[in-house]
Amino acid sequence: MSASVLVVVPDDTDELGAELAETARSTLGTISGLPAITVAVPDDRYDELADLEHLAARHRAGLVVVLEAERLAGDVVGPDQLASLGEQGFWLDTHDVGGWANRLGDDEPGATVVLSAGAARLPRQYAVVELLRRLGVRYFHPEQQYLPHHDPADLRALARRPTLLTREGPAHRPDFAWRSWSFHGAHPLEHLEAFSDPSHPIDEAVHVNQWIVSNFGNRFRGAGRGVVSEEQLAIRAAQLDELREHLGFAQGTGITLHNLQQGASSEIDPSLPVPVREQIERVVAGKLADMPDAQWFGIHFGPTELTTTPDEETVQWIDWAGQAALRLRPDIRVEINSHVTGSQPSPHFDDLGCPNGTNDEGRIDYYDLPHHADPRLGISVHTVMFYPLEGPARVYDQRSFAHKRCLMERASTQGRPLQWFPEGSWWLGFDNSVPMYLPLYMWARARDVELLRPLLASRGGGTLDGHRMFDSGHEWGYWQQDYLAGLLAWNADATLDQVLGEILDPLCEPADWRDGCEARREAIAVVQEIIEHQRELFLRREDFRGRPGGVYAYFAGEEQGDELAAASGLEFRPVRVSFGEVLDWDEEAMAHFRATDLAALHEAAEAYEGWRARLVALQPVVPTEGQPWLAEVIDGVEIDGLRAAQAAELYEAVLRYREVELSGENSPGIEAYPHSLAALEVLARAQKVIARRERSYRYPPAQTYGGGVTEATGVDNGTTYPYRVYTKTHLLTYWLDRQMQVTQLIVGRGIDDGPALELSEALDHEGAPLQVSWPPLEGLEGTLRIGELSLQPPDDELLLGDGPGYWPVSAELGSVSGPLSVRGGVARSDVRATTPAGGMALLYPDDPSAEGVLAGVLPSLRWAWVPEPMALVLAPDGDGDGSVRFDELVYAQVVQGDEAGFDTAPVELELPVALSSGGTALTITVGQAVLSGRLDADGLVSPITLDGQLRVDDIVKAAIELAGFDEAGTLALLGGVWGFDPADPPQWVPIVAELTVSAE
Predict the structure, then answer these.
(1) Which residues make beta-bridge pairs with 365?
(2) Mean pLDDT of the 241-246 span
(3) What angle do CA 247, 248, 249 make, to 5 degrees?
(4) 346 class by beta-carbon count within 10 Å (0-12 exposed, 13-18 middle, 19+ buried)
């Protein structure tokens, strides 16, 4: 049988070789539209290029692809050439031979022989992948590739053309020795089932790992979390391990010194009688014995992203683990995971000349402690989100990631192995789940490689030899940054423009491959303009509060954990100006906001609409095969513009509401309504865009947006999240939340739900009148009692007298809607104070992890001293606006001492923490709380001591909802702190804390 395209392989090739031959044959046939055949030949008769020329001549072939060329063309790819490639490099070479008229139909005589080779299983695959990439194949997504259809006459020229991976010559070697993606298993990714459940088809897991190969990675994605039993998980793990060996991936192991976040657990327990060092060395020895061929050994330290362990102990544990591994396996690569949280200065270790900007004492942050460990131990340096290794990065309580680069430069001079571990998505309300299309990620990751290029071990400049990309979902164009990462990890000289060219190749007719096409050029220009816009707006421009890049907070979604962290002083990520804050502004503040954040939102909405229109104009000229790739970019650009437009209209509504209030005119809600309605119309458009994009998702709906955010709709998937990566996208969670807040405001109910009685101010200075806002209920009647005083609707003001005091509040009101019971209190005093959010120092238990968690959720508190009878009155101020609710006031009567030193009767405090994802209020109860303190001439003296009991269930629920913990991990953490059995936890645990107070 003759054919125009031959794939030649040794007749005794292994199973992988046969698969590669079939992949090459079928893909070449699809691309060319001509039959391609595989020819298996004996290597004892074919060992020179001339032999392959004779074979091509017999078939009158025009293109001949040779696999394992070291066996079939040894005169070209000999032992020296093969050895020079190392374990990762591959050979890809073309030779034009012969003068016959071939079957491709071109004018060029003879054939082009493509020689491919690699010294190991992975590089053999890389060589075939790169050949197909030369022919225009693009391995964009694990479930979706781009295959062009070329004129057969173009095949030879295409096979000869280099891609951006090619530097010069036929030998291709990577810049980064280790290249991988995390496919973060603690997040509810689309393909969880394929990596855990043997009853689920394994195909999706196979495709993920084939995608890793096709993008030149060399670390396998193995079994992960799921809902099956350990026995069932072991079956799928074994199946995946067979795949790993077949594809040629190495493997590694490691130890978890501390980890309690997102369902993880530690392997070391310092409460056991076995010394910690002995525990560590036993675990290390056991792991290496179980995996004798492990090529790397990972070390995870740190209990959570927000909590720490003693710094000297931590470095010692890291050294014990790494040194134990090196004693047993001197050749193994040790990798310490260095996370990113800042503002956690270590008292005993300096910053090594790389100031982090989060403290003035020159102290290194906790998660940078590995730089003080044994220099033989490698570090995987992690940063988050789209921030590069330069410039502002106000996330995770950092100011910049520039010090991370400085530490890497210093570590490189020590000879310490390094891996770079940035992110391509963060998920959880920040980027892809909103959704936001952020090609800025591509620029940031390319810029990082440019900055780190001098440290590459492959270039002789340092010890950087690993690149790992954190990823958490591929829809909405997030595969683009992962695609870029694979190419730049192989060739660090490749540019962002070159990668954009490959990503947008499908916009051209395949026949235009030589010169490109106008649609591709225009799309590249649009994406470049978007990137520059996002760089300026999300990285550099100062927001209302003067924070560089703070405007992005209006594009991201709101998660309660982030807002609480910001309120407590931990800037986990920037949060936007709340609608409630706007309602307290004066004209000057509103003008400043209009000139900064609001102007940026209007500017962005207009710009994205222009870019969308330019991309839509390309659709008529883009070939059918390119339409899906263009559509994904269009949807992303449109959703970005709609996100800006909705935010702008909502803030216009609230600003108008406030302007009318300040003017003294009536009906501010009516004046604000047109902007709210415009925002609602934008939301409706966003819903259509999201629904349109969902029809093109690459995985089934149950795996992309299944589950739910309430107890009733949530579905266990093996992670700590009862929903999937794009569930909140599907539900428009981050759009509806804002819309509902403003809608409720405009209809006169404030930000809270439901009809309610409002008393303001519940805690105020002596002589301040009490304003009453009755709930808007038909037929409302009854008597409101405030101490000995009383009030009935519609009266709306009550004078409490000129002196200090506390007045209990009660009422049994009635209406057509039913009864309404009211309980609470109000206070008047000129001795008032405030505790800021997070203003707590924990005395017992003396544990930094517990202090970090509890301080992180403590809301602001307001205090008042009542002299007769002596009492403290306090209430939480969740939004920090200085106003508290009358039904949350707590009256704590002094039962011992006087102003010089007092103790109160035990009281119960319900501290509001946040709303869960499903809208359920979260609180932490402090029971039997005795408050102790004193007064001086200026008022309450800081601190006030709290001695009470914490309800364990409340802490567990808050940790699960806000920090992504699971129940077992949280109980393990609490059990270690309070010394109880996690399997049999108590209802309450003791706490003694000092609360900072400052006089008002």
Answers:
(1) 345
(2) 98
(3) 105
(4) buried
Residue in this structure with the two tokens 């209406």, named with its chain if needed: 815
User: Can you tell me the distance from the alpha carbon of 329 to that of 898, in angstroms, rounded to the nearest whole number?
Assistant: 68
The identity of residue 726, as a single letter, is: Y
Domain 189-531 shares a fold with domain 758-828: no
User: In the numeric block, which tokens belong to residue 748?
Assistant: 């006169």
Q: Look up residue 297 and give its DSSP letter.
A: E
* Cα separation of the two ends of the chain: 93
Mean per-residue pLDDT, 163-172: 93
In three-state secondary structure terms, 432 is: coil
Fold of 758-828: Immunoglobulin-like (2.60.40)
Fold type of domain 5-172: Chitobiase; domain 2 (3.30.379)
| Structure confidence by residue, pLDDT tens digits, 8-25 | 999 999 999 999 999 999
- Sequence letter at residue 350: D
Rounded mean pLDDT of 718-738?
Answer: 94
Long-range contact set of residues 162-166: C-beta below 8 Å, sequence gap at least 24: 162/134, 163/130, 163/133, 163/134, 163/502, 164/487, 164/491, 164/494, 164/495, 164/498, 164/499, 164/502, 165/130, 165/133, 165/216, 165/487, 165/490, 165/491, 165/494, 166/491
- Looking only at the bridges linking them, the beta strands covering 763-764 and 296-300 are unpaired
Helix (H, G, I), strand (E, B) or coil at 555: coil
Cis, bond preceding 435 (omega within 30 deg of 0): yes
CATH classification number, 189-531, choose in 1.10.1760, 3.40.50, 3.20.20, 3.30.310: 3.20.20
CA distance 241 to 256: 22
Per the DSSP assignment, residues forming a β-bridge with 773 are 758
pLDDT per residue as tens digits for the range 52-90 = 999 999 999 999 999 999 999 999 999 999 999 999 999
DSSP letter at 371?
G
* DSSP code at position 219: B
Distance CA 918, CA 727 (A): 12
CB 828 within 8 A of CB 765: yes
Sorted by where each begins, the domain ranges of the chain are: 5-172, 189-531, 532-746, 758-828, 832-999
3 pLDDT higher than 90: no
Q: Which of 603, 619, 606 is nearest to 522 (CA)?
A: 619
Of the candidates 380, 376, 290, 282, which has an alpha carbon nearest to the alpha carbon of residue 332?
376
Q: In 29-172, where do the E strands start and end?
A: 36-41, 63-66, 90-97, 111-118, 138-141, 144-146, 171-172
Residue 799 CA from chain centroid, whole number: 52
What Rg value do the Cα atoms of the chain yield, rounded?
A: 32
Q: What is the pLDDT of residues 402-459, one digit of tens each?
A: 999 999 999 999 999 999 999 999 998 999 999 999 999 999 999 999 999 999 999 9
Q: What is the mean pLDDT of the chain?
A: 93
pLDDT at 918 over 60: no
Q: According to the model, what pLDDT value does residue 749 have? A: 42
State the pLDDT at residue 753: 44
How far apart CA 147 and CA 190 sit, in angstroms, is 24
Q: How far apart are CA 342 and CA 784, in angstroms?
A: 50
Is the Cα torsion angle 413, 416, 420, 421 positive or negative in sign? negative
Q: Which string of b and e fits 194-232 if b means at least 16 CB within 10 Å?
A: bbbbbebebebbbbbbbbbbbbbbbbbbbbbbbebeeee
Each residue's pLDDT tens digit, 960-990: 666 666 677 778 778 878 888 888 899 999 9
Is the whole-model pTM more than 0.90?
no
Helices 518-535 + 627-663 axis angle, to 10:
40
Task: Give residues with Cβ within 8 angstroms of 384, minimum separation 6.
Answer: 340, 395, 396, 423, 426, 470
Q: What is the pLDDT of residues 686-722, one digit of tens each?
A: 999 999 999 999 999 999 999 998 888 999 999 989 9
